Protein backbone atom coordinates (compact mmCIF):
# COMPACT_ATOMS: atom_id res chain seq x y z
CA UNK A 1 0.00 0.00 0.00
CA UNK A 2 1.40 3.38 -1.00
CA UNK A 3 2.14 6.00 1.62
CA UNK A 4 -0.23 8.88 2.16
CA UNK A 5 0.65 12.16 0.50
CA UNK A 6 -1.34 15.18 1.57
CA UNK A 7 -3.05 17.57 -0.84
CA UNK A 8 -1.25 20.83 -1.59
CA UNK A 9 -3.50 22.32 -4.29
CA UNK A 10 -7.20 22.06 -5.09
CA UNK A 11 -9.21 23.44 -7.97
CA UNK A 12 -12.57 24.82 -6.81
CA UNK A 13 -15.64 24.53 -9.03
CA UNK A 14 -19.20 25.76 -8.66
CA UNK A 15 -22.26 24.04 -10.08
CA UNK A 16 -24.95 26.51 -11.14
CA UNK A 17 -28.68 25.93 -10.77
CA UNK A 18 -28.90 24.93 -14.45
CA UNK A 19 -26.27 22.24 -13.77
CA UNK A 20 -23.48 24.01 -15.69
CA UNK A 21 -20.14 23.95 -13.89
CA UNK A 22 -17.74 26.89 -13.69
CA UNK A 23 -14.16 27.13 -12.43
CA UNK A 24 -13.98 29.41 -9.39
CA UNK A 25 -10.31 29.45 -8.44
CA UNK A 26 -7.58 27.54 -6.63
CA UNK A 27 -6.75 26.66 -3.05
CA UNK A 28 -3.11 26.10 -2.14
CA UNK A 29 -1.39 25.12 1.08
CA UNK A 30 2.15 25.51 2.39
CA UNK A 31 3.61 25.11 5.87
CA UNK A 32 2.32 28.51 6.96
CA UNK A 33 -1.29 28.64 5.78
CA UNK A 34 -3.98 27.92 3.18
CA UNK A 35 -4.48 30.47 0.41
CA UNK A 36 -7.20 31.04 -2.18
CA UNK A 37 -7.20 32.97 -5.43
CA UNK A 38 -10.22 33.63 -7.65
CA UNK A 39 -9.96 32.83 -11.35
CA UNK A 40 -10.06 35.99 -13.51
CA UNK A 41 -12.88 34.64 -15.68
CA UNK A 42 -14.98 33.93 -12.59
CA UNK A 43 -14.35 37.44 -11.29
CA UNK A 44 -15.57 38.87 -14.60
CA UNK A 45 -18.75 36.80 -14.96
CA UNK A 46 -19.95 35.77 -11.49
CA UNK A 47 -20.26 36.87 -7.89
CA UNK A 48 -18.51 36.69 -4.53
CA UNK A 49 -18.83 33.38 -2.70
CA UNK A 50 -18.36 35.03 0.69
CA UNK A 51 -18.85 38.83 0.65
CA UNK A 52 -17.92 39.54 4.27
CA UNK A 53 -14.57 37.82 4.70
CA UNK A 54 -13.15 36.72 1.32
CA UNK A 55 -12.01 39.60 -0.96
CA UNK A 56 -13.64 39.35 -4.39
CA UNK A 57 -10.47 40.20 -6.29
CA UNK A 58 -7.44 38.60 -7.92
CA UNK A 59 -5.38 38.98 -4.74
CA UNK A 60 -4.15 35.91 -2.86
CA UNK A 61 -6.33 35.54 0.24
CA UNK A 62 -4.83 33.83 3.28
CA UNK A 63 -7.21 31.83 5.45
CA UNK A 64 -7.40 32.64 9.16
CA UNK A 65 -5.92 30.06 11.50
CA UNK A 66 -9.12 29.98 13.57
CA UNK A 67 -11.91 28.96 13.84
CA UNK A 68 -12.04 26.62 10.79
CA UNK A 69 -8.76 24.75 11.30
CA UNK A 70 -6.88 27.03 8.92
CA UNK A 71 -9.50 27.12 6.17
CA UNK A 72 -11.60 29.98 4.77
CA UNK A 73 -15.12 29.86 6.19
CA UNK A 74 -16.84 29.42 2.83
CA UNK A 75 -14.81 26.29 2.05
CA UNK A 76 -15.11 24.99 5.59
CA UNK A 77 -18.87 24.96 4.97
CA UNK A 78 -18.27 22.10 2.52
CA UNK A 79 -16.97 19.89 5.31
CA UNK A 80 -19.17 17.83 7.60
CA UNK A 81 -18.84 17.69 11.36
CA UNK A 82 -19.80 15.08 13.89
CA UNK A 83 -21.33 12.17 12.02
CA UNK A 84 -19.74 12.97 8.66
CA UNK A 85 -16.27 13.26 10.17
CA UNK A 86 -16.74 9.98 12.00
CA UNK A 87 -17.47 8.18 8.71
CA UNK A 88 -14.60 9.92 6.94
CA UNK A 89 -12.13 8.98 9.65
CA UNK A 90 -13.31 5.35 9.55
CA UNK A 91 -12.55 5.20 5.83
CA UNK A 92 -9.08 6.68 6.29
CA UNK A 93 -8.31 4.26 9.13
CA UNK A 94 -9.25 1.39 6.83
CA UNK A 95 -6.31 2.60 4.69
CA UNK A 96 -4.02 2.87 7.73
CA UNK A 97 -4.22 6.67 7.71
CA UNK A 98 -4.77 8.34 11.07
CA UNK A 99 -6.95 11.47 11.38
CA UNK A 100 -3.98 13.36 12.84
CA UNK A 101 -2.22 13.04 9.46
CA UNK A 102 -5.02 14.90 7.66
CA UNK A 103 -5.38 18.60 6.91
CA UNK A 104 -8.60 20.36 6.03
CA UNK A 105 -7.38 20.38 2.42
CA UNK A 106 -7.19 16.57 2.51
CA UNK A 107 -10.74 16.45 3.83
CA UNK A 108 -11.98 18.75 1.05
CA UNK A 109 -10.33 16.45 -1.47
CA UNK A 110 -12.20 13.56 0.13
CA UNK A 111 -15.53 15.40 -0.13
CA UNK A 112 -14.96 16.20 -3.83
CA UNK A 113 -18.43 16.86 -5.26
CA UNK A 114 -20.50 15.07 -2.62
CA UNK A 115 -20.92 17.85 -0.06
CA UNK A 116 -23.74 20.26 0.68
CA UNK A 117 -23.92 23.32 -1.57
CA UNK A 118 -22.60 24.17 -5.02
CA UNK A 119 -18.84 23.88 -4.48
CA UNK A 120 -16.70 20.90 -5.43
CA UNK A 121 -12.98 20.17 -5.24
CA UNK A 122 -10.46 18.43 -7.51
CA UNK A 123 -8.48 16.27 -7.50
CA UNK A 124 -10.42 13.82 -5.34
CA UNK A 125 -8.31 11.69 -3.03
CA UNK A 126 -7.49 8.21 -4.32
CA UNK A 127 -8.39 6.88 -0.90
CA UNK A 128 -12.04 7.75 -1.28
CA UNK A 129 -14.20 4.73 -1.92
CA UNK A 130 -15.65 4.78 -5.41
CA UNK A 131 -19.07 3.65 -6.51
CA UNK A 132 -20.74 3.33 -9.89
CA UNK A 133 -24.52 3.53 -9.96
CA UNK A 134 -24.68 1.66 -6.64
CA UNK A 135 -28.19 1.20 -5.26
CA UNK A 136 -29.03 -0.12 -1.83
CA UNK A 137 -32.14 -0.88 0.18
CA UNK A 138 -32.94 2.05 2.46
CA UNK A 139 -33.50 -0.35 5.35
CA UNK A 140 -29.97 -1.75 4.97
CA UNK A 141 -28.48 1.75 4.84
CA UNK A 142 -30.35 2.75 7.98
CA UNK A 143 -29.31 -0.38 9.84
CA UNK A 144 -25.63 0.18 9.11
CA UNK A 145 -25.79 3.86 10.03
CA UNK A 146 -27.45 3.00 13.35
CA UNK A 147 -24.97 0.21 14.08
CA UNK A 148 -22.04 2.58 13.54
CA UNK A 149 -23.64 5.32 15.64
CA UNK A 150 -24.32 2.84 18.46
CA UNK A 151 -20.77 1.51 18.28
CA UNK A 152 -21.76 -1.91 16.96
CA UNK A 153 -19.90 -1.72 13.62
CA UNK A 154 -16.45 -0.64 12.48
CA UNK A 155 -16.44 -1.03 8.69
CA UNK A 156 -18.31 1.47 6.53
CA UNK A 157 -20.31 0.65 3.41
CA UNK A 158 -19.18 2.56 0.32
CA UNK A 159 -22.58 4.13 -0.20
CA UNK A 160 -22.83 5.26 3.43
CA UNK A 161 -19.31 6.73 3.42
CA UNK A 162 -20.12 8.70 0.28
CA UNK A 163 -23.42 9.90 1.74
CA UNK A 164 -22.01 11.43 4.90
CA UNK A 165 -21.21 14.94 3.71
CA UNK A 166 -23.68 16.80 5.93
CA UNK A 167 -23.26 18.34 9.36
CA UNK A 168 -24.57 17.43 12.78
CA UNK A 169 -23.97 14.54 15.15
CA UNK A 170 -26.97 12.35 14.31
CA UNK A 171 -26.67 9.41 11.88
CA UNK A 172 -27.84 10.57 8.46
CA UNK A 173 -27.22 10.27 4.73
CA UNK A 174 -27.42 12.41 1.59
CA UNK A 175 -29.39 10.24 -0.82
CA UNK A 176 -31.01 10.27 -4.25
CA UNK A 177 -34.30 8.48 -4.72
CA UNK A 178 -36.64 7.72 -7.59
CA UNK A 179 -40.09 9.22 -6.87
CA UNK A 180 -41.78 5.86 -7.56
CA UNK A 181 -39.13 3.62 -5.99
CA UNK A 182 -38.45 5.17 -2.62
CA UNK A 183 -37.15 2.06 -0.84
CA UNK A 184 -33.94 1.86 -2.88
CA UNK A 185 -31.47 4.74 -2.78
CA UNK A 186 -28.12 5.82 -4.21
CA UNK A 187 -25.61 8.60 -3.57
CA UNK A 188 -24.91 9.07 -7.28
CA UNK A 189 -26.80 12.00 -8.82
CA UNK A 190 -28.79 10.95 -11.88
CA UNK A 191 -31.45 12.54 -14.07
CA UNK A 192 -34.95 12.01 -12.71
CA UNK A 193 -33.83 11.43 -9.11
CA UNK A 194 -34.70 13.61 -6.13
CA UNK A 195 -32.13 14.79 -3.57
CA UNK A 196 -32.92 14.19 0.10
CA UNK A 197 -31.23 14.21 3.48
CA UNK A 198 -32.49 11.32 5.60
CA UNK A 199 -32.03 11.23 9.37
CA UNK A 200 -31.88 7.87 11.09
CA UNK A 201 -32.67 7.26 14.75
CA UNK A 202 -31.10 5.44 17.69
CA UNK A 203 -32.07 4.60 21.23
CA UNK A 204 -28.96 6.58 22.25
CA UNK A 205 -30.37 9.89 20.96
CA UNK A 206 -32.01 12.37 23.35
CA UNK A 207 -35.49 11.45 22.14
CA UNK A 208 -34.62 7.89 21.13
CA UNK A 209 -36.52 6.55 18.15
CA UNK A 210 -39.03 9.41 18.43
CA UNK A 211 -36.35 11.88 17.35
CA UNK A 212 -37.44 12.15 13.71
CA UNK A 213 -41.15 12.32 14.55
CA UNK A 214 -40.55 15.13 17.04
CA UNK A 215 -38.56 17.11 14.48
CA UNK A 216 -41.40 16.61 11.99
CA UNK A 217 -43.81 17.99 14.61
CA UNK A 218 -41.60 21.04 15.08
CA UNK A 219 -41.46 21.60 11.33
CA UNK A 220 -45.25 21.43 11.18
CA UNK A 221 -45.57 23.97 13.99
CA UNK A 222 -42.99 26.30 12.44
CA UNK A 223 -44.81 26.21 9.12
CA UNK A 224 -48.09 26.97 10.89
CA UNK A 225 -46.37 30.02 12.41
CA UNK A 226 -45.56 31.24 8.88
CA UNK A 227 -41.92 30.16 8.83
CA UNK A 228 -40.36 28.73 5.66
CA UNK A 229 -39.26 25.14 6.32
CA UNK A 230 -37.84 22.44 4.04
CA UNK A 231 -40.16 19.98 2.35
CA UNK A 232 -40.16 16.78 4.41
CA UNK A 233 -41.56 13.28 4.53
CA UNK A 234 -41.59 10.30 6.86
CA UNK A 235 -40.12 6.98 5.74
CA UNK A 236 -41.41 3.80 7.34
CA UNK A 237 -38.81 1.54 8.91
CA UNK A 238 -38.29 -2.24 8.59
CA UNK A 239 -40.58 -4.43 10.70
CA UNK A 240 -37.61 -6.01 12.49
CA UNK A 241 -36.18 -2.59 13.44
CA UNK A 242 -36.58 -0.81 16.76
CA UNK A 243 -36.85 2.44 14.84
CA UNK A 244 -40.34 3.92 14.47
CA UNK A 245 -39.84 6.24 11.49
CA UNK A 246 -37.13 8.16 9.66
CA UNK A 247 -37.42 11.82 8.74
CA UNK A 248 -36.23 12.94 5.32
CA UNK A 249 -35.78 16.56 4.21
CA UNK A 250 -35.70 17.59 0.57
CA UNK A 251 -32.40 19.37 -0.03
CA UNK A 252 -32.85 23.11 -0.51
CA UNK A 253 -29.37 23.46 -2.05
CA UNK A 254 -30.47 21.43 -5.10
CA UNK A 255 -32.47 22.83 -8.03
CA UNK A 256 -35.14 20.93 -9.92
CA UNK A 257 -32.74 20.46 -12.85
CA UNK A 258 -30.15 18.71 -10.63
CA UNK A 259 -28.14 21.93 -10.32
CA UNK A 260 -27.09 23.60 -7.08
CA UNK A 261 -27.47 26.83 -5.17
CA UNK A 262 -24.38 28.16 -3.42
CA UNK A 263 -24.92 27.67 0.31
CA UNK A 264 -23.19 29.56 3.11
CA UNK A 265 -23.68 29.20 6.86
CA UNK A 266 -23.59 32.11 9.29
CA UNK A 267 -20.68 30.29 10.90
CA UNK A 268 -18.67 30.38 7.67
CA UNK A 269 -19.83 33.83 6.64
CA UNK A 270 -18.68 35.53 9.84
CA UNK A 271 -15.82 33.16 10.73
CA UNK A 272 -17.55 32.13 13.93
CA UNK A 273 -16.91 29.03 16.03
CA UNK A 274 -20.25 27.22 15.99
CA UNK A 275 -19.23 25.16 19.02
CA UNK A 276 -19.12 28.28 21.18
CA UNK A 277 -22.01 30.60 22.16
CA UNK A 278 -20.18 33.52 20.58
CA UNK A 279 -22.92 35.31 18.63
CA UNK A 280 -26.17 37.13 19.19
CA UNK A 281 -29.47 37.24 17.32
CA UNK A 282 -28.69 40.90 16.71
CA UNK A 283 -25.63 39.78 14.70
CA UNK A 284 -27.76 37.28 12.77
CA UNK A 285 -30.38 39.87 11.87
CA UNK A 286 -27.85 42.51 10.81
CA UNK A 287 -25.84 40.05 8.70
CA UNK A 288 -29.02 38.75 7.04
CA UNK A 289 -30.21 42.24 6.13
CA UNK A 290 -26.87 43.27 4.66
CA UNK A 291 -26.22 40.03 2.76
CA UNK A 292 -29.74 39.73 1.32
CA UNK A 293 -29.98 43.51 0.76
CA UNK A 294 -33.40 43.44 2.35
CA UNK A 295 -34.50 44.95 5.67
CA UNK A 296 -37.54 42.62 5.58
CA UNK A 297 -35.50 39.45 6.11
CA UNK A 298 -34.76 40.73 9.60
CA UNK A 299 -38.42 40.14 10.49
CA UNK A 300 -38.19 36.56 9.25
CA UNK A 301 -35.13 35.92 11.39
CA UNK A 302 -36.82 37.57 14.39
CA UNK A 303 -39.77 35.18 14.08
CA UNK A 304 -37.40 32.22 13.90
CA UNK A 305 -35.62 33.52 16.99
CA UNK A 306 -38.96 33.76 18.82
CA UNK A 307 -39.87 30.23 17.77
CA UNK A 308 -36.58 28.90 19.16
CA UNK A 309 -37.15 30.78 22.42
CA UNK A 310 -40.64 29.44 23.10
CA UNK A 311 -40.02 26.00 21.52
CA UNK A 312 -36.94 25.30 23.67
CA UNK A 313 -34.68 24.80 20.66
CA UNK A 314 -31.46 25.90 22.32
CA UNK A 315 -29.14 24.27 19.79
CA UNK A 316 -29.45 27.44 17.68
CA UNK A 317 -25.73 27.76 16.89
CA UNK A 318 -24.23 29.54 13.88
CA UNK A 319 -24.05 26.45 11.68
CA UNK A 320 -27.82 26.04 11.87
CA UNK A 321 -28.43 29.28 9.95
CA UNK A 322 -27.74 29.35 6.22
CA UNK A 323 -28.10 31.51 3.12
CA UNK A 324 -28.56 30.60 -0.55
CA UNK A 325 -27.17 32.49 -3.55
CA UNK A 326 -28.67 32.12 -7.02
CA UNK A 327 -26.82 32.32 -10.33
CA UNK A 328 -27.36 36.10 -10.51
CA UNK A 329 -25.68 36.70 -7.15
CA UNK A 330 -28.85 37.35 -5.15
CA UNK A 331 -28.84 35.98 -1.60
CA UNK A 332 -31.86 34.76 0.36
CA UNK A 333 -32.51 32.96 3.63
CA UNK A 334 -32.33 29.19 3.55
CA UNK A 335 -35.36 27.43 5.04
CA UNK A 336 -35.49 26.95 8.82
CA UNK A 337 -33.69 23.64 9.47
CA UNK A 338 -32.45 21.48 12.36
CA UNK A 339 -35.32 22.85 14.41
CA UNK A 340 -36.48 20.54 17.17
CA UNK A 341 -36.71 20.17 20.93
CA UNK A 342 -33.08 20.59 21.98
CA UNK A 343 -32.46 21.87 25.50
CA UNK A 344 -28.90 22.58 26.61
CA UNK A 345 -27.44 21.24 29.87
CA UNK A 346 -27.41 24.73 31.38
CA UNK A 347 -30.71 25.85 29.84
CA UNK A 348 -28.92 28.46 27.74
CA UNK A 349 -29.33 29.20 24.02
CA UNK A 350 -26.21 28.98 21.84
CA UNK A 351 -27.33 32.24 20.18
CA UNK A 352 -27.92 35.01 22.69
CA UNK A 353 -30.86 37.44 22.72
CA UNK A 354 -29.25 40.81 23.27
CA UNK A 355 -26.74 39.17 25.60
CA UNK A 356 -29.26 36.89 27.35
CA UNK A 357 -28.89 33.13 26.99
CA UNK A 358 -32.40 32.70 28.35
CA UNK A 359 -35.40 34.82 29.42
CA UNK A 360 -34.51 38.04 27.55
CA UNK A 361 -36.12 41.22 28.86
CA UNK A 362 -38.83 43.18 27.07
CA UNK A 363 -36.41 46.08 26.54
CA UNK A 364 -33.88 43.78 24.87
CA UNK A 365 -36.49 42.19 22.59
CA UNK A 366 -37.93 45.58 21.67
CA UNK A 367 -34.47 46.63 20.52
CA UNK A 368 -34.14 43.39 18.54
CA UNK A 369 -37.55 44.00 16.93
CA UNK A 370 -36.50 47.50 15.86
CA UNK A 371 -33.33 46.06 14.34
CA UNK A 372 -35.51 43.51 12.53
CA UNK A 373 -37.44 46.40 10.93
CA UNK A 374 -40.75 46.08 12.77
CA UNK A 375 -42.49 49.45 12.73
CA UNK A 376 -43.73 48.97 16.30
CA UNK A 377 -43.58 46.53 19.20
CA UNK A 378 -47.21 45.49 18.76
CA UNK A 379 -46.46 44.06 15.30
CA UNK A 380 -43.61 42.01 16.77
CA UNK A 381 -45.90 40.77 19.55
CA UNK A 382 -48.46 39.70 16.95
CA UNK A 383 -45.80 37.43 15.46
CA UNK A 384 -45.18 35.98 18.93
CA UNK A 385 -48.87 35.18 19.23
CA UNK A 386 -48.74 33.31 15.91
CA UNK A 387 -45.78 31.28 17.19
CA UNK A 388 -47.55 30.45 20.44
CA UNK A 389 -50.73 29.47 18.61
CA UNK A 390 -48.65 27.09 16.48
CA UNK A 391 -46.88 25.61 19.51
CA UNK A 392 -50.23 25.04 21.21
CA UNK A 393 -50.88 22.35 18.59
CA UNK A 394 -48.04 20.18 19.93
CA UNK A 395 -50.25 17.56 21.59
CA UNK A 396 -52.58 17.11 18.64
CA UNK A 397 -49.70 16.97 16.13
CA UNK A 398 -47.72 14.42 18.14
CA UNK A 399 -50.83 12.29 18.50
CA UNK A 400 -51.28 12.40 14.73
CA UNK A 401 -47.62 11.43 14.19
CA UNK A 402 -47.77 8.66 16.82
CA UNK A 403 -45.07 10.13 19.07
CA UNK A 404 -44.87 8.13 22.29
CA UNK A 405 -46.98 9.57 25.11
CA UNK A 406 -44.01 9.84 27.49
CA UNK A 407 -41.96 11.91 25.04
CA UNK A 408 -44.94 14.06 24.08
CA UNK A 409 -45.76 14.81 27.71
CA UNK A 410 -42.13 15.54 28.56
CA UNK A 411 -41.80 18.11 25.78
CA UNK A 412 -45.24 19.55 26.54
CA UNK A 413 -44.07 20.34 30.07
CA UNK A 414 -40.89 21.95 28.75
CA UNK A 415 -42.86 24.07 26.29
CA UNK A 416 -45.02 25.26 29.16
CA UNK A 417 -41.91 26.15 31.19
CA UNK A 418 -40.53 28.14 28.25
CA UNK A 419 -43.85 29.97 27.99
CA UNK A 420 -43.93 30.78 31.72
CA UNK A 421 -40.38 32.14 31.53
CA UNK A 422 -41.06 34.38 28.54
CA UNK A 423 -44.76 35.27 28.64
CA UNK A 424 -43.85 38.73 29.94
CA UNK A 425 -42.87 39.62 26.38
CA UNK A 426 -46.56 39.63 25.46
CA UNK A 427 -47.60 42.15 28.11
Span from first to last CA? 70 Å
Percentage beta strand: 15-25%
Strand order of the largest sheet: 6-8-7-9-11-10
What is the overall silhouette? globular
Overall average residue pLDDT:
92
Q: Give the biggest sheet.
A: 6 strands, antiparallel
Broad structural category = alpha+beta
Total beta strands: 16
What's the number of helices? 14
Helix content: 25-40%
Task: Output the helix-strand order.
Answer: EEEHEHHHEEHHEEEHEEEHEHHEEEHHHH
Uncertain parts: none
What is the total domain count? 3
In angstroms, what is the radius of gyration? 22 Å
Descriptive tags:
427 residues, alpha+beta, Phosphorylase Kinase, domain 1, five-stranded antiparallel beta sheet, 14 helices, globular
Structure notes:
- With 427 residues, the protein is of the alpha+beta class.
- It folds into three domains: 9-122, no CATH class; 136-250, Phosphorylase Kinase, domain 1, CATH 3.30.200; 265-426.
- It has helices at residues 40-45, 73-76, 83-94, 104-111, 138-149, 158-161, 211-224, 266-269, 281-292, 297-311, 362-371, 377-391, 394-401, 405-422; strands at 9-15, 21-29, 34-38, 61-62, 119-122, 136-137, 172-178, 181-186, 194-199, 232-236, 245-250, 262-265, 279-280, 322-325, 331-333, 351-352.
- Helix 10 (297-311) packs across helix 12 and helix 13 packs antiparallel against helix 14.
- The longest helix is centred in the C-terminal third of the chain and has 18 residues, at 405-422.
- The mean pLDDT is 92.
